[in-house]
Amino acid sequence: MSTKFCVNLTCSGNDTDKATVAFVIANAAVASERDTMVFLNVEGVRLSQQGFADDIHEEGFAPLAELIGNFVKAGGKVWVCSPCFKKRGLDEGKLIEGATIVGGAKLVEFLADGSPSVSY
Predict the structure, then answer these.
(1) SS3 for the chain, per residue?
(2) 32-69 confidence digits (pLDDT tens)
(3) The whole model's pTM is what?
(4) What is the C-alpha separation between 16 and 3, in angstroms, rounded?
(5) What fold does the segment set 4-119 form as a domain?
(6) Can you give the residue ranges of every domain in the chain?
(7) Are 29 and 64 contacting, i.e. CB atoms less than 8 angstroms apart?
(8) Going by C-beta distance under 8 Å and a sequence separation of 6 or more, which residues neighbour residue 69?
(9) Do the Cβ atoms of 73 and 48 come closer than 8 Å?
């Protein structure tokens, strides 16, 4: 059985409910002592930018910026899809703490042992 867990997130400001729930699940996984990674891709890459999540707060949940910060502080990894990041002209100098820009091969490597994954 894998000790890893992947949350695949394609949303950000375009679907704040999905973005929030993705980080709620990611926090649960990392708290369960899973090697947890959130893969930001498509519109999700916007969450890699400092300040982007600051005004996102879905009713009934902690603010998204707080969820992301807690996830990283707990040892979670945030991987950012390189082609998606470049397509949107985002700034590498404004990456949030814990974010790393990666290519698809890195995601495949993480999942290769049959690691469970959920997508939002």
Answers:
(1) CCCEEEEEECCCCCCHHHHHHHHHHHHHHHHCCCEEEEEECHHHHHHHECCHHHHCCCCCCCCHHHHHHHHHHCCCEEEEEHHHHHHCCCCHHHECCCEEEECHHHHHHHHCCCCCEEEC
(2) 999 999 999 999 999 999 999 999 999 999 999 999 99
(3) 0.96
(4) 28
(5) Hypothetical Protein Ychn; Chain: A, (3.40.1260)
(6) 4-119
(7) no
(8) 97
(9) no
Paired tokens of 94: 């404004």
Sign of the Cα pseudo-torsion (16, 97, 33, 101, in order): positive
Q: What is the pLDDT of residues 10-31, one digit of tens each?
A: 999 999 999 999 999 999 999 9
What are the tokens at 118? 């959920």
